[in-house]
Amino acid sequence: MFPSLLATAGGLLLLFSLSSAGSHREQRGDSSAATVCVANDGFGMYCPTTCGVADYMLKYFSKTNDDLEQMLIDLENIANMTQDAENRVVYMKDSMVAAQKSITPDIYIKKSSSMLDDVYRFEKTISVQEQQIIELQNTVSSNERRMSELKQLSLQLQQKCSEPCKDSVEIQPISGTDCQDIANKGATTSGLYYVKPQKATEQFLVYCEIDAFGRGFTVIQRRRDGSVDFKKDWIQYREGFGYLSPDDTTEFWLGNEKIHLLTTSTTTPSVPTVLRIELVDWEGNKKYADYNMFRIGSEADKYRLTYGFYFGGDAGDAFDGYDFGDDPSDKSYTSHNGMQFSTFDNDNDRYDGNCAQQDGSGWWMNRCHAAHLNGKYYSGGRYSEKDAGEFGFDNGIIWVTWHSRWYSLKETTMKLIPLSRLSAGGQTTGVKEFGGLGL
Ligand SMILES: [Ca+2]
């Protein structure tokens, strides 16, 4: 039984170490790096989720493993004690025989009766210990059964993880250059779709929000619950991170390169794209802001943000900067139009320091911002300099033309739509549909 238990524990450890390599790279569930689960472009909710389940199981395994090891030690101790006791009984029986042979009957009877007492006592101990061993053996075999079931399940999950994401995530069959193109082709449900913008060399997955008016928004950013850490480096912001989900329940940054491709048209004149920003605060209020002729430059231009003009909305024009009253140049220091993208490891801001490092995000930093939708997530909204870490700056999810810089929003969405379709259902109708807030 011991060898088989050891073998099982060894197998578990192996299983644990094999899978923990994957889970480490998947730490926090939001790594954009290629993982064991992801077959192609790094998005798709279910593969990482499957790993999440596996991680959970592995945690459980680890505990079971510890328990089993402890049990193994206990069993060995008991076995040793039992062996000791048996040895002593054998020794005493031998002694009795020896005594019988060599000692006079009177002394023998005295000695032997005391020895017999000892023998009975030890035999009793042995029987108790044997009972304990049987109970432990039962526990071990029941644990072995459970472990074997878990291993089976884990193998199934690993099998699932090694399959391409598209096999387990519901991806809609229609594809197009963007979500509006997909909606134009007849898609009526929001979900995951493949898009291939004109300049793209390969298709990639996006979440399309398709409404009752046939408008197809391509979602490029989503904050919902703080489950994804947005403090990422240049490459992660370039490639995108977080998770796309068919039911829009997850947080992500689609990736600067993809946003660049989605906002770069090959036609002349170019097709104007509107960036719609939707915001939700902690009281459940919803507001939005639209920017027309929105565009993200290439990586060579550090994914520079440009837009033609603020196109309306009730959240106000925070991209234009804000006069905080701290400095005469506040507003020009905090406007975003024309800013290059910065991350902590790629500082392209207009500040002597490093805005992205100080505020723990990737964003079109000026010196630094009046809008900061990739900021740190603060549950409840209100936070202070003390909460903001070593630098103490306003690093939350900010849109200062609505809430102050010390109020971090609960939810954000950044999404794209061709200008021609924004008002397809009626601009006012569309606005009403979003939170019932008309212009
Ligand atoms: Ca700088």
From TrEMBL:
Start and end residues of each Fibrinogen C-terminal domain: 170-420
Q: Where are the transmembrane segments?
A: none
Q: Which residues form the signal peptide?
A: 1-21
UniProt GO cellular component terms:
fibrinogen complex
Q: Please give a single GO biological process term from the UniProt record.
A: blood coagulation, common pathway
Q: Mind telling me which Gene3D superfamilies this protein's record contains?
A: 1.20.5.50, Gamma Fibrinogen, chain A, domain 1, Gamma-fibrinogen Carboxyl Terminal Fragment, domain 2
SUPFAM superfamilies xref list: Fibrinogen C-terminal domain-like, Fibrinogen coiled-coil and central regions
Which keywords label this protein? Blood coagulation, Calcium, Coiled coil, Disulfide bond, Glycoprotein, Hemostasis, Metal-binding, Secreted, Signal
Query: Where does the protein principally reside?
Result: secreted
- Write out the annotated subcellular location: Secreted
Q: Does the keyword Signal apply?
A: yes
Write out the GO MF terms: extracellular matrix structural constituent; metal ion binding; protein-macromolecule adaptor activity; signaling receptor binding
Which InterPro entries does this one have? FIB_ANG-like, Fibrinogen-like_C, Fibrinogen_a/b/g_C_1, Fibrinogen_a/b/g_C_dom, Fibrinogen_a/b/g_coil_dom, Fibrinogen_CS
What is its quaternary makeup? Heterohexamer; disulfide linked. Contains 2 sets of 3 non-identical chains (alpha, beta and gamma). The 2 heterotrimers are in head to head conformation with the N-termini in a small central domain.
Protein name (database record): Fibrinogen C-terminal domain-containing protein
Q: Which organism is it from?
A: Takifugu bimaculatus
